[in-house]
Specification:
Shape: rod-shaped
Structural class: mainly alpha
Strand content: under 5%
Distance between the termini: 100 Å
Number of helices: 3
Helix content: 55-70%
Largest sheet: none
Order of helices and strands: HHH
Low-confidence stretches: none
Length: 82
């Protein structure tokens, strides 16, 4: 047998064994679909921030009413000036 053939057989065997070891240890690589992120670190940080992000607090009914009255007065004054 030629040494090139022996090397090719050994390389094929090594790849087969590597795949078998990965499959048994649960490290089998899964293919991601779609376009990869521009910056893997930035995308990982963004997912952490989005999960830890606090909820925005809404306005109470009284606060909305007070703001509406302020804006009505503002626009009334604005109309008077014109």
């Amino acid at each position: 047998m030629d040494t090139q053939q022996i090397v090719a057989i050994l390389i094929a065997e090594r790849e087969r064994l590597t795949k078998a070891i990965d499959a048994l240890s649960g490290l089998e690589p899964t293919k991601r679909r779609g376009r990869p992120p521009k910056n893997a670190v930035a995308s990982a940080a963004a997912t952490v921030e989005s999960t830890e992000q606090k909820k925005r607090r809404g306005w109470s009914a009284a606060a909305k009413k007070a703001q509406a009255a302020k804006m009505k007065a503002y626009w009334a004054a604005k109309k008077k000036v014109q």
